[in-house]
Amino acid sequence: MTDNSHPDDARLIAHLEGRLPVEEREALIARLSTDDSLRMRLDRIERGGPIIAPAFEALKADAPRARLESLLSAAIATDETRRVLERPRTRTLRMPRWQPGLVAAATALFLLGGVVGAALSGWIGSDNSEMADSQDSEMLVRAPEGWRQAVAEYWSLTTADTLALVPTPERAAAELRAASAKLGVDLAGAPEAFPNLSFRGAQLFDFQGRPLVQIAYLDPVHGPIAYCVIAKPDKADLPLTTEEMDGFTIVHWASNGQARLLIGRAPAEHLQALARKVAS
């Protein structure tokens, strides 16, 4: 059998599970921003498929049988994991997002008896033709798109102190011009979009080759709130949808070829009301 493992697989899986120390995580994120092949590897591991078995193989050295059995027992004890493992075999499987408990169960099953290979091939799809048949769904394996998770992880580092300085009108205008030009969307009205929030600047990021604009605001009651816009390749419109992720409330939607979200620690009703101001 060809060894398709990668020297960074264990580190990538640890990153997806949130187990990397801060310094290693920051270094990996920096590499992902410039290394297309590593970013593609991470995306393929997160989505599952043929690469997942060799990726788990990289964990063998750190996963003795006793530990795996303990992981498996703990994971199966959760309702969500038990529902997945007991679900009848189907061609595709939708899950909320990368879940450490499910990863633990899959890893244990793979290393203890090779069962996960057959199970995953049934749940996810054994070849590219099955993936093509599923293009009408948002995403196989992970329902929340990866960009929303990336925003949540970054925004978790943001505090009111981070947004303490108000940009000058000249700087704000320059940031919004640059973001608008890159994204192809006029964002000049962002400072006045939410009258009760204080505009604190716009930043331009890259997510898997797509420009991602993050516009920061400071809410006097609920703290930092971000309005983010990213190009949506399939151009499909989506209605306002609310979800909880990593302690944040996220309201997201899509229109005119762009996916958008508002994220913060504010109540859902508050963010939904803000979203309706820019979604209409």
TrEMBL record:
<protein>
    <recommendedName>
        <fullName>Anti-sigma factor</fullName>
    </recommendedName>
</protein>
<feature type="transmembrane region" description="Helical">
    <location>
        <begin position="101"/>
        <end position="124"/>
    </location>
</feature>
<keyword id="KW-1133">Transmembrane helix</keyword>
<keyword id="KW-0812">Transmembrane</keyword>
<keyword id="KW-0472">Membrane</keyword>
